[in-house]
Fold this sequence. Notes:
The protein is of the alpha+beta class.
Amino acid sequence: MPGLLQTREYAVAVLSSFIDFVRVPDDAEEGASARLARQQVLTHGDRRFHMVLGQQALHTNVGGAEVMAGQLEHLLAVLALPRLRLGIISFDAPYRVPLNNGFWILDETLVQFDTYSAELSLARPDEIALYSRAFERLAALAVYGAEARAILTRTLDRLAAGSS
Length: 164
C-alpha cells in the first residue's frame, strides 16, 4: 500500500514492522505523521496521480482486522479524489510484466523504489522507459472506478464477516 494512501494506523503498523526488522530506534509515530503530511499532495496543488495496487495488498493483514477495515474504507474514500486514478489488479489478472518492487515514476525524469536498506533513484532515459513500459502493462491489467470499488467493498465485507 503506497504511503500516500495509508491511514495513520496502517502506516504505524507498517513502520513498526520495518523498525523491528531492521532493528533501528522506534520512530513509527513520527514516520506516520510525516506520511500523512505528504498526503496533502493528493488534494493540494496541480499534480495528478495514477496508482495501481495488486489485490493481494488488500488482503495482507497489516495491523489486524480493525486497521485493515479502516484502510479499506480510506481507499474507498480516495477513489473519489479528482486527481487520483486508482486501479486494482485482480488476483486472476494474467501475468504480463515481471513483478519486482513497487516503484514511482516522477515527472518522467526519475524513477524511485525502495529496497530493505535504501531508496534507489534511476534517472537514465532507458531505465525510465523500462519502468514506464512496466507501469503501462500493469495499468492495463487494473480495473478502475465502479469495478475497483466493488473489489474494495467485497474485501471489506469479507473482513467484517471474518471478524464477527
